[in-house]
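Progress report, Aim 2. The chain analyzed during this reporting quarter is listed below.
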Amino acid sequence: MKAVGIYGSPRKGGNTDQLLDKVLEGAKSGGAEISSVYARDLGMSGCIECGGCDKTGKCVVKDDMQDVYPLLEEADVIFLASPIFFYGVTAQLKALIDRSQACWSKRMLEKTPEERKTFDSGKGYLIAVGATRGENLFEGAILTARYFYDALDMTYEGGIFFRSLEEKDAVQKNPETLQEAFNLGLKSVSP
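Predicted structure tokens for the chain:
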């Protein structure tokens, strides 16, 4: 079982990172092989909509995203983690997600319309943190995650969502939150 954690926060070591660390710790304790991707450290552009992936299912833009594609393809479970910026995921994470257009193209090339009704490549989860208490705070991020996993031929399994966490270490004052993250990781890799 291979699990990938995609760190979407531009702030190193903040609440989002700490929660995803716990999720991956839980997955590892359940026997998963863990890989991490830090969107903030990738030297990459967003999708340039060149159409290069339309015939092959492979992105033609040569940058750090080329190292991410194999991880996405081999993963059984992928965790997206992001703080909420303007009711969506961060720009760094969105650029990575947009570059999954190549994965979508590959899926369209390899599966018939009937086969596309099923998702055969694994499961995806979202970990989202917001500073405010807005009623619809996570809706944009959830839609983005759902369609990202769709492009990867994975099911979206939901996730964990935390409001009112703004200070860099606010999650440390909420040990039950860290435990919930650990439990999600463990549950995600359990048969």
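The domain at 2-189 is CATH 3.40.50.360 (Rossmann fold). The first strand starts at residue 2 and ends at 7. These observations will guide the mutagenesis work planned for the next reporting period.
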